[in-house]
Amino acid sequence: MFPNPVILQSEGLLKYILETGVYPREAETLKELRNATAKHPLGFMGTAPDVGQLIAMLLKMLNAKKTIEVGVFTGYSLLLTALTIPHDGKIIAMDPDRKAYEIGLPFIRKAGVEHKIDFIESPALPVLDKLLEDGENEGSFDFGFVDADKNNYWNYHERLMRLVKIGGVVVYDNTLWGGSVALAEERVSEAKREWRRLSLAFNEAISKDSRLQIAFLSIGDGLIICTRLR
Ligand SMILES: C[S@@+](CC[C@H](N)C(=O)[O-])C[C@H]1O[C@@H](n2cnc3c(N)ncnc32)[C@H](O)[C@@H]1O
Ligand SMILES: O=c1cc(-c2ccc(O)cc2)oc2c(O)c(O)ccc12
């Protein structure tokens, strides 16, 4: 069984990648959080561990210290980020669902990284707007990860482009939405059509955004990595 919605259509190859290069290097507390998340009815929403591995590498390459997380759920990508950034690093994480966050919290505490996390129980947009009211926050973040309500991705992008420093990175999850972006609309289930349309519009807008260098990746459910150029 695929652990999450994934673009890679070879179950064997994904299993090989995860079992060879990802699971053996996954921190014990992350593994425990992932297993606890699997019992949640929406457990499929958790960030894929191979995506997590890539995010950790980006964080290390950037020497990221100050990050933003939009969409926490039970906290797989949050714990991964907290484990990766330095002891005095900070993550501002936002999600209206505190109950899901509390599923992951014991593992965050066990890992000894809770002090790096400022969890804000709220939709992300007003929090990002509030951050922007203080000019000191502009261009002060090293990294952002967006894995939340797909209809607001462009709104998040506009704010993150001001909050992240030049050379900073923002990563967007689910940009290929189960592969539906490459299918004719009538071949996509009614349930997926709206998010397919949103993904198409977001991907096109990002592609045209001259402020960025971008990479479109077919990992997990599709990832866009953006570096702010100016
Ligand atoms: C796919 S999950 C996030 C997965 C998470 N990155 C992980 O590693 O498990 C999407 C999350 O977005 C949250 N969400 C929905 N609307 C939101 C909003 N307006 N602002 C912030 N988070 C939101 C949901 O509550 C849900 O927990
Ligand atoms: O099936 C999903 C649904 C979401 C989702 C739905 C509604 C929201 O407000 C936020 C997120 O996110 C997903 C996701 O990030 C994923 O990797 C797989 C599936 C889903």
UniProtKB/TrEMBL annotation:
InterPro entries: Cation-dep_OMT, SAM-dependent_MTases_sf, SAM_O-MeTrfase. One of its GO terms (molecular function) is methyltransferase activity. It comes from the Eukaryota. GO terms for biological process: methylation. The keyword Transport does not apply. PROSITE patterns: SAM_OMT_I. Keywords: Methyltransferase, S-adenosyl-L-methionine, Transferase. Methylates caffeoyl-CoA to feruloyl-CoA and 5-hydroxyferuloyl-CoA to sinapoyl-CoA. Plays a role in the synthesis of feruloylated polysaccharides. Involved in the reinforcement of the plant cell wall. Also involved in the responding to wounding or pathogen challenge by the increased formation of cell wall-bound ferulic acid polymers. Belongs to the class I-like SAM-binding methyltransferase superfamily. Cation-dependent O-methyltransferase family. This is Caffeoyl-CoA O-methyltransferase.
